[in-house]
Prior knowledge:
By secondary structure, this protein is of the alpha/beta class. It has 12 helices and 17 strands. The chain has a 9-stranded mixed beta sheet with strand order 2-1-17-16-14-3-12-13-15, with helices on one face. The chain starts with about 30 loop residues before the first strand and ends with a strand.
Amino acid sequence: xxxxxxxxxxxxxxxxxxxxxxxxxxxxxxxxxxxxxxxxxxxxxxxxxxxxxxxxxxxxxxxxxxxxxxxxxxxxxxxxxxxxxxxxxxxxxxxxxxxxxxxxxxxxxxxxxxxxxxxxxxxxxxxxxxxxxxxxxxxxxxxxxxxxxxxxxxxxxxxxxxxxxxxxxxxxxxxxxxxxxxxxxxxxxxxxxxxxxxxxxxxxxxxxxxxxxxxxxxxxxxxxxxxxxxxxxxxxxxxxxxxxxxxxxxxxxxxxxxxxxxxxxxxxxxxxxxxxxxxxxxxxxxxxxxxxxxxxxxxxxxxxxxxxxxxxxxxxxxxxxxxxxxxxxxxxxxxxxxxxxxxxxxxxxxxxxxxxxxxxxxxxxxxxxxxxxxxxxxxxxxxxxxxxxxxxxxxxxxxxxxx
Length: 403
C-alpha cells in the first residue's frame, strides 16, 4: 500500500545564511553529528573512524561529476544554456563520452523559449583558441518544456569527455545561488570519484580525506564501491502535497558481483552506506533479486515497488538470485536502474548506518532520513540548526544509526 504522506510535514526553517556556499579549507574539518539510539553527540568528521565498528562493510558511490553545463549563443546574441542530463545516442555513458564527432543528449535548456530551429555555436567570450578549435555546435531535435533532445557536434577528433573538460562548467547545485568557480572543479568531487556520469556530486563523500580513509582501513573495515550516476532530478522539489503524486527519476547504477558476494556473506557485520545514493542502490538490490526470482532477470526498480507488495523472499535469497543471474551470463557486474523512493514505512533490508549531509526542506532526501531514523528526523535537524551546523552540499555531515 502506497503511504499517504504530506510533504509539508517535512518542512523546517532553513535560512539562506545556513546554506554553505563554499567548502571548508579542509574536507574533514566539517562538523559531524552522531545519532545513535535516540541520542545526539557532536564531533568533527575526522573523528568518524573511531565511531565505526570493526569488521563493518562500508560502501561508497564512486561516480564522477562531469562538467555538463555548456553555454551557447544565438546570432541574435541570446544566451542558451544546455545542461547534459543523460545520453540518448549512444545510450551508454561510456560510449557517449568516447564519441569523437557527435552525440545526442537529453538536456535541460536554459532560456529555452529563445531557441528556435537555428544551430547554436559555443559561447566563447575570451576567444580561447582551444575552445574555438572544437567548433562545438548544438541542434535542438525535440523540445519538451524546459528539456529536450540536443545533438552536439564538434571537430578535431577529441572524445566528448575531453570536449566537456575544455568547454563545460561544473553543474553546482542551484541553491548555492552563484556561478561555478575554479574551487568547484576540485571540491565538488570526491577523492575517490572514478566513473564519469553524474551531474551532481554524492555529497556525503566530499568530507573524506586520504587520512580518514586510511584510519577506516586500519580498523579492519572493508571499503567497497557502487556506481550510481546522480541525475538532476535530485534537485527537483516535491511540488505535490501528496508524496504519492511525485514522480521519481530513473538513475542507472552498477554493482560488482564481488560486492554482491560480500553482502551475501557479511553475516551480522554492519553495513555502512556513504550517502543517500549508496542507500538507494543497495536497497534496490533486494527488489532486483525479487525480479530475478519471479521472472528470471532483473528489471528496473519502480518507485513504489517496496510498498505495493508483500514479498516472501529473504534478503539472502534475493542476493543469491542476482549472483546466479550473473553467473549464468558470465558477467562480473550488475547493470540496472532504479526509481525507488524511500519514505517512512520503508523496510530497510541491508543498510545499518548512514553517512549523509543535511538536506533541503520538503525533499525526498528528508523523507529517506526520516525513514532511516524511525521518524526522529526533526530532533536531529533542530539540533543541527541550534548548534551552527552548515547545511546542504558543502555543509556538515552526520552519522545516523538505524534504531
